[in-house]
Amino acid sequence: MISSKIFESTFLPAKFNGPKSSSKIMIVMHGLGDHKASYKDFALEVNLTGLDYLLINAPTPYYFGFSWYDLPPAEPRDGILNSIEMLERLIDELQAKGYQDEDIFICGFSQGGCIALHTFLSMERKFAGVIGLSPRIYLDKMGVQEKEIHRETPIFIAHGIHDQAIDFNEVQDQVTRLKSHSLNIEFNEYDMGHEIDISEIRDLAKWLNERL
Known about the structure:
The structure is a single chain. The chain is of the alpha/beta class. The protein is 30% helix and 21% strand. The chain has helices spanning 40-46, 77-96, 111-122, 168-179, 198-209, and strands spanning 9-12, 24-29, 51-56, 60-62, 65-67, 104-109, 129-133, 155-160, 185-190. The protein has a 7-stranded mixed sheet with strand order 1-3-2-6-7-8-9, sandwiched between helices. β4 (60-62) and β5 form a beta hairpin. α2 crosses α3. The longest helix has 20 residues, at 77-96. The radius of gyration is 16 Å and the shape is globular.
């Protein structure tokens, strides 16, 4: 059983371990105003043999849920940096429990996807994979400088073409910039708004299964 001293968390062990115990884990981060309990069904729908899940709450209370950073027009940078620092400490916790970097998937939706991507880009380490579902990406604001090692981690980014909260074209432009630096990104677009769609989950499950 895995727990964290950094975040409020829920550990969901792999439903099926197959011939051996699970060796990989996915950190799952919710969107603005949501909480970790909402992502139990997401984990069950992904439902891959040998993959554990650690669902975590963002650090700042926000109405009936939590927030990873302040929304524009407020300045989001300080909150993003704080959340990145906390997530880096969580990754160190997982290492102390026996997980290697290459055993860890970092996944998030919306604000959580932003933190997943920017935490990865702030570290010079190779992970099992990074997943951004409908994320906002702040390459200029966060002063991102891609490193050679970032090319070694596979990245899955998905976005709805009708997203009413985070403009699809804006995200596509940010992804194109990352790809221009030879990052290993699979970018999928879906006929949906700001949400997680079942076809998106199926594509993600296939992508994950190829990396387990």
